[in-house]
Amino acid sequence: MGMDSHYFLAIPLPAESKQMIARWKEGAKEHLIFKKWVHEEDYHITLFFLGAVSAEQLNGLSEKMRRIAEEASSFTIPAGETGYFGKPDQPKIFWAGAKAVPMLVDIQRKIMAGCVEHGFSAEKREYRPHITLARKWEGTDSFQKEVKKVPSLHAFEWTVDHFVLFKTHLNKDPKYEMVEKFTFGDVSY
């Protein structure tokens, strides 16, 4: 685990939700021209971006994340409304929103605090949970004009009972590899 790899902590989506978004995406791609659409296996809600991580940092961090997960309880996240980050006519990121339910916000804060304890910088921006669908608008017409031609993404929800540590592989598709799974304490398998 060299320093050239980037890592992040996230909540992966269940297979059914990934498939539903992927089916919707096929129709959306007819109107929405982005440089890169996210592979369905890579759909997730980021909790904390770590960046480059040493093996020593990763070991200490894993233990802290296990403790946070053991104290957590499962919760449901509603999602589905779409939006964007960036300029209205040429967004950088097109996403499906996830509701910032109290238990999600609470665990994200605990995870960020645990990461800060291990030498990572706290995120300064407000936490806005979302599922990235596509990156970098390349359409010739305005995004605002084209997005009106796309049917709405259906609302969906799922029960979250774990989070994971992902490693990024920039030259692969899907590009995220699960390194470790942190299961909540109220879940028994």
Automatic annotation (TrEMBL):
It holds the Pfam family LigT_PEase. The keyword Plastid does not apply. Belongs to the 2H phosphoesterase superfamily. ThpR family. It catalyses: a 3'-end 2',3'-cyclophospho-ribonucleotide-RNA + H2O = a 3'-end 2'-phospho-ribonucleotide-RNA + H(+). InterPro entries: Cyclic_Pdiesterase, Phosphoesterase_HXTX, RNA_CPDase. This is RNA 2',3'-cyclic phosphodiesterase. The active site is at residues 44, 130. A motif (HXTX 1) lies at residues 44-47. It is an enzyme of class 3 (hydrolase). One of its GO terms (molecular function) is RNA 2',3'-cyclic 3'-phosphodiesterase activity. It comes from the Bacteria. Keywords: Hydrolase. Residues 11-95, 104-176 form the Phosphoesterase HXTX domain. Hydrolyzes RNA 2',3'-cyclic phosphodiester to an RNA 2'-phosphomonoester. It comes from Salibacterium salarium. A motif (HXTX 2) lies at residues 130-133.
